[in-house]
């Protein structure tokens, strides 16, 4: 009998341990984060409200939060007395399983959620079967277009709303409706267990803030207002980045990417055979030199740069080719010594050409934009393409 009792206790301990422990080698990665903060005027002019419309990504747009971690889209506020609050839509493993986003909030002070019976510094506004729920349930299906806002309605109190849902009232000592010495911020980030995790297809539009004049006006963050934090705690490939593409006004498409370029390749002038990651493949047009630059057919150059055929678009009317990959949109026009990268014009000393009905691009100008180094071997008429920060590979044409 004693033996049976001991076996049951051992079994119970084993079960509890399996539910409350994680593998010793488990690592959680924290992505780079895009954060934009308003600035304070010379006389302390700040902001009291912010509103934004955004399209929420689905599960297929996010990797690495299947078991732990979460993706975030937040509005935030900072007061003169250093109180800070962030609230918005997030997706963790529970939300992922339900193909939804839920409202999550965090404050650096106690009492923000006191109206809902919580004195913790964070709160999730979704159903909780283990507690008596006195807060509204705020969940949104994947792919939804939502408008959310954060506003100081009276001293020490702010309201967060998602259009069509019940508002959330939060305590925030120091918050003032005039916005004096008050900062607003927006945050997009991903906490993931997968170092190659990413978050994309986040489209923010109609971002507006209310200043001391009480009028909502469009906010396009200036460079001084943007910060990119990279706080991965392990395995950082040192080439992580956040790219924010902004139209003339809006929308802004935010792509956060953690995986670095990995391909290596080589082209030899006059030779239709090229190499990618040690394997030899055949092109239908050989690379050539024009104006002191090595030209390569777009299809094969893109292949080495990790750009898929679906990310290459030819516009017959404008005679331009667009390459879109990892948050970078590069547009080159036949006969024009100019490249557009995420809407910004940069000069080139040569222009794209059409040879034998194939679009041929200057290798260096394209590969550099997508994280690759281009190196020329004059002795063997070979151009090498490999990830920035890595060593140049050996010449595969030399046996």
Report on the structure:
With 399 residues, this protein is mainly beta. It folds into 2 domains: 26-257, Jelly Rolls (Sandwich); 265-387, Copper Amine Oxidase, Chain A, domain 1. It is built from 4 helices and 31 strands. The chain has helices spanning 2-20, 93-97, 298-304, 363-369, and strands at residues 29-30, 32-37, 49-55, 70-78, 84-91, 100-107, 122-124, 139-141, 145-154, 157-162, 168-171, 183-192, 198-210, 216-218, 226-230, 241-246, 252-257, 265-268, 273-276, 279-282, 288-290, 293-297, 312-315, 320-325, 328-333, 338-341, 344-347, 353-355, 358-362, 372-377, 382-387. The strands form 5 sheets. Strands 1, 2, 4, 5, 6, 7, 8, 12 and 15 form a 9-stranded antiparallel beta sheet that branches. Strands 3, 9, 10, 11, 13, 14, 16 and 17 form an 8-stranded antiparallel beta sheet that branches. It has a 5-stranded antiparallel beta sheet with strand order 20-19-18-31-30, covered by helices on one side. The model is unreliable at 1-28 and 230-241 (pLDDT under 50).
Task: List its traits.
399 residues, mainly beta, Copper Amine Oxidase, Chain A, domain 1, nine-stranded antiparallel β-sheet, eight-stranded antiparallel β-sheet, elongated, disordered N terminus
Could you give the topology of this structure?
Blueprint (H helix, E strand, L loop, with lengths): L1 H19 L8 E2 L1 E6 L11 E7 L14 E9 L5 E8 L1 H5 L2 E8 L14 E3 L14 E3 L3 E10 L2 E6 L5 E4 L11 E10 L5 E13 L5 E3 L7 E5 L10 E6 L5 E6 L7 E4 L4 E4 L2 E4 L5 E3 L2 E5 H7 L7 E4 L4 E6 L2 E6 L4 E4 L2 E4 L5 E3 L2 E5 H7 L2 E6 L4 E6 L12
Short description:
The chain has 399 residues and is mainly β. Helices cover 10% and strands 43% of the residues. The N and C termini lie far apart (76 Å).
């Amino acid at each position: 009998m004693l033996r049976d009792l001991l076996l049951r206790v051992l079994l119970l301990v084993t079960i509890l341990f399996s539910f409350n422990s994680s593998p010793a080698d488990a690592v959680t990665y924290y992505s780079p984060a895009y954060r934009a903060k308003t600035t304070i005027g010379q006389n302390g002019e700040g902001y009291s409200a912010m509103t934004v419309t955004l399209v929420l990504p689905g599960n297929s747009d996010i990797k690495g939060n299947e078991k732990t971690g979460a993706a975030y889209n937040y509005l935030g506020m900072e007061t003169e007395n250093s109180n800070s609050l962030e609230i918005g839509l997030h997706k963790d493993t529970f939300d992922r399983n339900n193909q939804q986003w839920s409202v999550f909030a965090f404050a650096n002070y106690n009492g923000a959620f006191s109206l809902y019976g919580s004195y913790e510094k964070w709160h999730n506004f979704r159903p909780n079967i283990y507690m008596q729920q006195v807060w509204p349930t705020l969940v949104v299906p994947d792919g939804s277009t939502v408008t959310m806002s954060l506003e100081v309605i009276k001293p020490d109190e702010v309201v967060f709303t998602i259009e069509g849902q019940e508002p959330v009232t939060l305590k925030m000592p120091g918050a003032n409706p005039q916005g004096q010495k008050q900062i607003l911020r927006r945050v997009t980030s991903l906490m993931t267990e997968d170092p190659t995790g990413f978050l994309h297809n986040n489209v923010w539009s109609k971002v507006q803030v209310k200043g001391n004049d009480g009028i909502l006006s469009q906010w396009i963050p200036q460079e001084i207002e943007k910060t990119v934090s990279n706080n991965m705690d392990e395995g950082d490939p040192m080439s992580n980045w956040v790219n924010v593409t902004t139209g003339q006004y809006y929308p802004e498409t935010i792509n956060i990417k953690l995986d670095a370029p990995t391909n290596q390749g080589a082209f030899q002038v006059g030779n239709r055979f090229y190499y990618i990651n040690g394997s030899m493949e055949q092109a239908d047009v050989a690379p050539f030199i024009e104006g002191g630059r090595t030209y390569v057919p777009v299809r094969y150059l893109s292949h080495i740069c990790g750009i898929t055929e679906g990310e290459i678009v030819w516009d017959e009317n404008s005679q331009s080719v667009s390459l879109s990959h990892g948050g970078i949109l590069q547009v080159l026009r036949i006969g024009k010594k100019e490249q557009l990268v995420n809407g910004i014009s940069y000069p080139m000393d040569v222009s794209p050409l059409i040879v034998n009905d194939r679009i041929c691009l200057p290798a260096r100008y394209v590969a550099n934009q997508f994280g690759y180094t281009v190196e020329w071997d004059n002795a063997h008429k070979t151009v090498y393409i490999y990830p920035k920060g890595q060593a140049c590979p050996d010449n595969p044409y030399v046996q």
